[in-house]
Amino acid sequence: MHFANLFYLQKMVNGGIVNNWMCFNFSRNVQDSVARGFCYELAQMCHISGMTFNTEPILPPYTARPDHVERALKTRYSEAMTKLKGKEVDLLIVILPDNNGSLYGDLKRICETELGLVSQCCLTKHVFKMSKQYLANVALKINVKVGGRNTVLVDALSRRIPLVSDRPTIIFGADVTHPHPVEDSSPSIAAVVASQDWPEVTKYAGLVCAQAHRQELIQDLFKVWQDPVRGTVTGGMVKHVSFIPNFYLLICLYVW
Description:
The chain is of the alpha/beta class. 33% of the residues lie in helices and 17% in strands.
């Protein structure tokens, strides 16, 4: 069998679970029937790859204009929550125009900072092409977003990673994404992730929040949050810091 065909037959290490999902279509070139067909094929690929994935959405695909993104998301989300009666929406599959301007950023901001929803965006050109390799790539992205694991480092399993494997360790990552240059008022989006599965360190939890326009530093980085289950966890220290852009500036601002 050709190598390209083997790619999308690989199983995930741990498959995530998607019971309740919806599809939003913001592309006027994609008909409802095409959107339904694409979502079905994507759900099938997720299932083949090792996920537990319900092939039927909560509600039929919802088509809306890009300039109505906030109203469409919040209205449909409310309808879904009424139908689910206390259960959560696990995933939004979103079809975007190939040239979507600020739509992608607006959608991610609303989903992740206002509604708390996991979303996976797909461009129109890929929806029409619907190649197996593309579907497999998207399935891998979805799996990680819903808590699954695609790969595990062999060195992690055998506890041979320097500075990580010798004692319980959390690896953090942080970044700030800024709006398009022509947007002078949209907020920047800050995100912080942390590993949850030492010693494998391949599964990460994340927090996302909006902050001041083009603010490079994460404003709430040192805000204290109380874990209702574990309380305050002590006994650790920073062992290693990887190089990041503007590192000296950040050290001066955060430390001094």
